[in-house]
């Protein structure tokens, strides 16, 4: 059977700073500073361990157009490790590490093939004689708005055809509309795989043929949350197989906490600590944003509370594999209200309470939940007490929501 196996990665942004963090202890700062390199090393370890035929890097290897020397040297070392294992690397450069940047050129070893500024094809052959044609181009300048997709054409007689493209799926609004394409453009080329880069959120645009944004390899700010990584791809004549490999050393997380039962600072502090312990994950660090809601109205100065709480939580944290670094706390107070006061003040609320009191068919309303094959396993039996507490809770959510507006 003809088969090839490779790693598809993109947007490594080596040496990128992580944004939105203040006053980090030096050893935590150092770990975060290393995180993009950690991801690179993980990719290379995986390639060697899995004995892949080659690696594709679909642009933005380097974060800045100056391609920091530190980043280039580290990248070169990792490429040399691959060379020792006879693993080739197919590289394109994207909008961040485009070819016109002002960078000091460091020669890469011979197993690294970098695509030029026009779409070109490179041939590859495995030790078993399975062949692939690999297509791509590097950004000559930062802004490439042309439809470069029109220059990709199936060439050469190969077992597999793979396109590499750093560009934007048209219609997405959050990213620079570089080298834009539509899904159909890629489909129509008749390739076996499209290795995309540019969008940092992992996205599978198509499964057959696979058209994939693997996302970046290490989140760099709050919005790039959750695990990040690359794909191991196996293609044969009949099917494709994709395995996601997590490469991020540190992930960005937001955790919601309901503080309605906390009466004192200590209660709140303990609840946060407990939550952090529940989140710990072997071998992965986390940058944590706490979103605390329903905070008791008796807490006065919220800014002070927030600063003190953050300090207290950070105080105990050591740089260990399963580090959790709370970097931000959002506080939202519960809205206080009294039923009879609201009802006498406003006809609208009086009407709501009248309807709530008259509700008889709560069990019908939640029936679909109780019939759900998975959901029902987690539910308490629908006793009179449960019905009453559901009703009470619903009223609370509704009124608090209305009062906040
Ligand atoms: Mn990028």
Structure in words:
This is DNA repair exonuclease. Residues 4-201 form the Calcineurin-like phosphoesterase domain. GO terms for molecular function: exonuclease activity. Keywords: Exonuclease, Hydrolase, Nuclease. With 405 residues, this protein is α/β, with parallel strands linked by helices. It has three domains: 3-246, Purple Acid Phosphatase, chain A, domain 2, CATH 3.60.21.10; 250-333, no CATH class; 339-404, no CATH class. It is built from ten helices and 15 strands. It has helices at 26-49, 69-84, 183-188, 265-279, 302-315, 339-345, 347-358, 362-365, 367-371, 384-404; strands at residues 3-9, 54-58, 88-92, 112-114, 120-125, 131-136, 160-166, 193-197, 203-207, 210-213, 229-236, 240-246, 250-258, 285-295, 324-333. The strands form three sheets. It has a six-stranded mixed beta sheet, covered by helices on one side. Helix 1 (26-49) packs parallel to helix 2 (69-84) and helix 4 (265-279) packs across helix 5 (302-315). It is elongated. The N and C termini lie far apart (64 Å). The site of manganese (II) ion (MN) has 6 residues, from loops.
């Amino acid at each position: 059977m003809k088969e090839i196996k490779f790693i598809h990665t993109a947007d490594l942004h080596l040496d990128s700073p992580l944004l939105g963090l203040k006053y980090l202890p030096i050893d935590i700062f150092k770990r975060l500073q290393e995180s993009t390199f950690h991801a690179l090393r993980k990719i290379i370890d995986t390639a060697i361990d899995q004995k892949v035929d080659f690696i594709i890097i679909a642009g933005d290897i380097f974060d800045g157009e100056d391609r920091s020397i530190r980043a280039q040297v580290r990248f070169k070392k990792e490429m040399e490790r691959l060379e020792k294992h006879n693993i080739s690397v197919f590289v394109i450069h994207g909008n961040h590490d485009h070819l016109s940047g002002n960078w000091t050129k460091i020669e890469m070893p011979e197993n690294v093939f970098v695509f030029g500024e026009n779409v070109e094809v490179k041939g590859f052959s495995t030790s078993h004689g399975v062949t692939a044609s690999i297509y791509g181009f590097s950004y000559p300048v930062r802004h490439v708005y042309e439809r470069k997709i029109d220059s990709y054409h199936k060439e050469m007689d190969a077992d597999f055809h793979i396109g590499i493209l750093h560009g934007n799926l048209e219609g997405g609004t959050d990213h620079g509309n570089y080298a834009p394409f539509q899904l159909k453009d890629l489909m129509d080329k008749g390739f076996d795989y499209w290795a995309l880069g540019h969008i940092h959120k992992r996205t599978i645009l198509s499964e057959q043929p696979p058209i994939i944004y693997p996302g970046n390899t290490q989140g760099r700010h709050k919005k790039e949350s959750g695990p990040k990584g690359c794909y191991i791809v196996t293609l044969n004549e009949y099917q494709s197989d994709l395995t996601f490999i997590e490469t991020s050393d540190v992930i960005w997380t937001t955790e919601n906490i309901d503080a309605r039962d906390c009466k004192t600072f200590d209660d709140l502090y303990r609840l946060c600590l407990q939550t952090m312990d529940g989140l710990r994950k072997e071998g992965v660090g986390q940058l944590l944003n706490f979103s605390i809601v329903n905070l008791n109205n008796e807490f006065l100065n919220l800014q002070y509370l927030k600063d003190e709480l953050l300090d207290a939580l950070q105080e105990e944290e050591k740089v260990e594999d399963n580090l959790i670094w709370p970097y931000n706390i959002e506080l939202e107070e519960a809205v206080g209200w009294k039923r009879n006061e609201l009802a006498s003040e406003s006809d609208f609320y009086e009407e709501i309470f009248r309807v709530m009191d008259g509700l008889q068919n709560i069990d019908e309303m939640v029936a679909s939940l109780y019939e759900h094959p998975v959901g029902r396993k987690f539910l308490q039996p629908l006793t009179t007490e449960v019905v009453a507490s559901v009703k009470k809770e619903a009223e609370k959510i509704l009124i608090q929501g209305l009062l906040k507006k």
